[in-house]
From TrEMBL:
<dbReference type="Pfam" id="PF22580">
    <property type="entry name" value="KYNU_C"/>
</dbReference>
<feature type="binding site">
    <location>
        <position position="207"/>
    </location>
    <ligand>
        <name>pyridoxal 5'-phosphate</name>
    </ligand>
</feature>
<dbReference type="InterPro" id="IPR010111">
    <property type="entry name" value="Kynureninase"/>
</dbReference>
<dbReference type="InterPro" id="IPR015424">
    <property type="entry name" value="PyrdxlP-dep_Trfase"/>
</dbReference>
<feature type="binding site">
    <location>
        <begin position="126"/>
        <end position="129"/>
    </location>
    <ligand>
        <name>pyridoxal 5'-phosphate</name>
    </ligand>
</feature>
<keyword id="KW-0663">Pyridoxal phosphate</keyword>
<comment type="subunit">
    <text>Homodimer.</text>
</comment>
<feature type="binding site">
    <location>
        <position position="289"/>
    </location>
    <ligand>
        <name>pyridoxal 5'-phosphate</name>
    </ligand>
</feature>
<protein>
    <recommendedName>
        <fullName>Kynureninase</fullName>
        <ecNumber>3.7.1.3</ecNumber>
    </recommendedName>
</protein>
<comment type="pathway">
    <text>Amino-acid degradation; L-kynurenine degradation; L-alanine and anthranilate from L-kynurenine: step 1/1.</text>
</comment>
<keyword id="KW-0378">Hydrolase</keyword>
<feature type="binding site">
    <location>
        <position position="99"/>
    </location>
    <ligand>
        <name>pyridoxal 5'-phosphate</name>
    </ligand>
</feature>
<dbReference type="GO" id="GO:0030429">
    <property type="term" value="F:kynureninase activity"/>
</dbReference>
<feature type="binding site">
    <location>
        <position position="232"/>
    </location>
    <ligand>
        <name>pyridoxal 5'-phosphate</name>
    </ligand>
</feature>
<keyword id="KW-0662">Pyridine nucleotide biosynthesis</keyword>
<dbReference type="InterPro" id="IPR015422">
    <property type="entry name" value="PyrdxlP-dep_Trfase_small"/>
</dbReference>
<feature type="binding site">
    <location>
        <position position="210"/>
    </location>
    <ligand>
        <name>pyridoxal 5'-phosphate</name>
    </ligand>
</feature>
């Protein structure tokens, strides 16, 4: 069970193991950071190079000609992401970044009126979301200290769905929550939470940065009003690759809070009228010219999700993290780690090991050829990725961590994070 032979056996049983050959794996490196920046695949590289070629050979005509006409790319890539979030065609658009999409969606769906003026969030979400929510509240002339309600966590790791639902009181005008928590990897029961929000008539949106490409979603069926995400983590779209958003078709026709000409109907966009004629679907929530160079690699990266399907990815991901947790328990029990992720199937695509020396343990792991990431104040996140990591990678990672702990190799580093952790 704990010997390398077990890892070799598990790899031999893995039906999607061939996909690791699609990626540029770094030499002598065990890459466990797909939840911050996924690796480059050959297909993503190809679609990026093809895009450059279309610019080279077509110039301005690249907007409407060539393999992937730029004018329609946001819609076509959105369509390819739709199965990953359980959206219908037209409900998903590739655009913006996580934070800019959140701004767009809050500007659209946050309509404080009468006593209903507050936004419900949580105290564990990624800081950028909280900054955006506070600034949107301030833009309405309201005080964020009073109008942002953050559901508390008992242990700093997990949120209780029941507590979230209890906080959906009369004064809540909008709800924004993560699908998977960025530190602990807890998968929130989005279906249950969305049903409660729908019952109370409160618009609800989810940040899917850590869940898209890692866990399946059925946003349309669950009645979620909107969602937003990045494509550079589990989708392997590259640093700064274009993000995405979902708007449920029940909300089509809602005027975009932040308007811009790329939100227009395609056929009238170039009429140059000063009265906007917004698209009838999620396209309406685009603002300016798409960042086509940062969108191009996403096309190739998504092909593999289409071929494999999110259910098989989730199945392997759970096996990888399950195997990793067993090894942690067996090999690292004497070194003072606490497993900070859910141990059952409500964990997402990574595990979180908490330790007071976490910052320098991460540095020692990097020195030993393992790429983790550190999350303040005490977290080592390890994300074995279904498309390119193996069970052997997991085995070697834990063996290396054991040596680091056993020989206290982390002691030569300062217990302080780097500029980009
Ligand atoms: C959950 C979550 N929300 C928001 C962000 C911010 O995303 P962006 O920099 O793409 O706006 C990140 C990561 O960067 C994240 O993990
Ligand atoms: N977006 C990032 C960046 O620009 C640099 C380094 C890391 C990131 C990340 O995405 C971090 C990620 N949101 C997290 O969960 O911590």
């Amino acid at each position: 069970m704990f010997k390398i032979e077990e890892a070799i056996k598990l790899d031999a049983q893995d039906e999607i193991s061939q996909y690791k050959n699609e990626f540029y794996l770094m030499k002598d490196v065990l890459y466990m950071d797909g939840n911050s920046l996924g690796l480059l695949s050959k297909r993503a590289e190809t679609t990026l190079l093809n895009l450059l070629d279309s610019w080279k050979t077509l110039g301005i005509d690249g907007w409407t000609e060539g393999e992937n006409p730029w004018f329609y790319m946001s819609e076509t890539v959105g369509g390819k992401m739709a199965p990953l979030v359980g959206g219908k065609l037209g409900e998903v658009i590739a655009t913006g970044s996580t934070t800019s999409n959140l701004h767009q969606l809050v500007a659209t769906f946050y309509k404080p009126t009468g006593n209903k003026t507050k936004i419900l969030a949580d105290e564990l979400n990624f800081p950028s979301d909280i900054y955006a929510l506070k600034s949107q509240i301030a833009l309405k002339g309201l005080d964020p200290a009073e109008h942002l309600v953050q559901v508390e966590s008992d242990d700093g790791r997990f949120l209780s769905e029941d507590r979230i639902i209890e906080a959906m009181t009369e004064d809540i005008a909008l709800i924004v929550l993560p699908g998977v928590l960025y530190r602990s990897g807890q998968v929130l029961n989005m279906e249950k939470i969305a049903a409660a929000a729908n019952d109370r008539g409160i618009p609800i949106g989810f940040d899917l940065c850590h869940s898209i490409g890692s866990v399946p979603h059925s946003l349309h069926e669950w009645g979620v009003d909107f969602a937003f995400w990045c494509t550079y983590k589990h989708l392997n779209g590259g640093p700064g690759s274009v993000g995405g958003l979902f708007v449920h078709e029940k909300n089509f026709g809602t005027a975009p809070g932040l308007a811009g000409w790329f939100g227009s109907k395609k056929e009238s966009q170039f009429d140059m009228n000063h009265t906007m004629d917004p698209a009838e679907d999620s396209s309406a929530f685009q603002v300016g010219t798409p960042h086509v160079l940062s969108l191009a690699p996403v096309i190739g990266a998504l092909e593999m999700f289409d071929e494999v399907g999110i259910d098989r990815i989730r199945e392997k991901s759970l096996k990888l993290t399950g195997y990793m947790m067993k090894l942690v328990e067996h090999e690292l029990s004497e070194f003072g780690f606490t497993v900070g992720n859910p141990i059952d199937d409500t964990r997402g695509g990574h595990i979180l090991l908490e330790h007071q020396e976490a910052a320098r343990i991460c540095k020692a792991l990097k020195e030993a050829g393992v790429i983790p990431d550190f999350r303040a104040p005490n977290g080592v996140r390890l994300a074995p990725v279904a498309l390119y990591n193996t069970f052997e990678d997991v085995w070697h990672t834990i063996q290396k961590l054991k040596v680091i702990m056993d020989e206290k190799r982390y002691e030569k580093f300062e217990n302080k994070r780097g500029v980009v952790a």
